[in-house]
């Protein structure tokens, strides 16, 4: 084969390769780089977000729902929606009672993080919230809040559909609480509470 012909063929092949390389480079530069992230890492998130509450959002609890806590299931019999100024929270009466036949409640509030507390009725005879500290069953509680709120009832709650409630809240270490309430100026009702850890409460919405 003539040397000139070979030279022309080589030149054509070289040009074709250059064109292919240019096209590949242009195509690659047109694709945006994926954001870099270390292997196994995740986007920052709020550890107290509602999605950490297994089976549903406790802020949506209402009469007819079911909750499961520590292996026991309870129906929500009724709810109180409370408001004091611009602050709101809820209290929910459950159907299952303790061994002592005391009422069981759940309170749900955001201040500012979501906080769910499990309450058990306490015999308040002779016990009134007139001191800065109170000791119950060997636990010392310190007074934290005192106020009056308006409430609206839903379902069965044991109180009127609407009214006012005075409350006094005490707090101890380890997420333990003592609370007093009196509705319409009546007798004090008391309960002890423990914070519900994230992920331990399962909610089954009613129909």
How would you sum up the major sheet? 8 strands, antiparallel, barrel
Mean pLDDT over all positions: 82
Shape: elongated
Strand-pairing-aware structural class? mainly beta
Count, helices? 1
Binned strand content: 35-45%
What is the number of strand segments?
11
For the termini, the CA-CA separation is 88 Å
Sheet with most strands: strand arrangement: 2-3-4-5-10-9-8-7
What oligomeric state is this? Answer: single chain
Radius of gyration: 32 Å
Topology as H/E string?
A: HEEEEEEEEEEE
Helix content: 10-25%
> Spans with pLDDT under 50 lasting ≥5 residues?
30-39
List the defining traits of the structure above.
eight-stranded antiparallel beta barrel; elongated; mainly beta; 207 residues; 1 helix
């Amino acid at each position: 084969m003539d040397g000139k012909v070979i030279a022309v063929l080589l030149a054509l092949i070289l040009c074709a390769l250059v064109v292919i390389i240019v096209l590949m480079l242009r195509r690659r530069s047109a694709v945006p780089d994926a954001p870099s992230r270390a292997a196994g890492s995740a986007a920052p998130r709020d550890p107290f977000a509602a999605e950490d509450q297994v089976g549903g959002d406790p802020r949506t609890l209402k009469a007819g729902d079911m909750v499961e806590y520590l292996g026991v299931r309870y129906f929500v019999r009724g709810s109180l929606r409370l408001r004091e100024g611009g602050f709101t929270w809820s209290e929910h009466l459950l159907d299952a009672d303790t061994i002592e036949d005391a009422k069981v409640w759940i309170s749900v509030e955001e201040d500012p993080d979501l906080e769910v507390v499990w309450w058990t009725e306490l015999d308040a005879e002779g016990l009134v919230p007139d001191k800065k500290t109170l000791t119950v069953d060997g636990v010392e509680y310190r007074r934290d809040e005192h106020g009056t709120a308006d409430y609206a009832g839903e379902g069965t709650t044991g109180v009127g559909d609407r009214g006012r409630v005075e409350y006094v809240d005490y707090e101890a270490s380890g997420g333990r609480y003592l609370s007093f309430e009196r509705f319409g100026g009546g007798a004090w009702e008391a309960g002890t509470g423990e914070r519900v850890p994230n992920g331990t409460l399962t909610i089954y919405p009613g129909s």
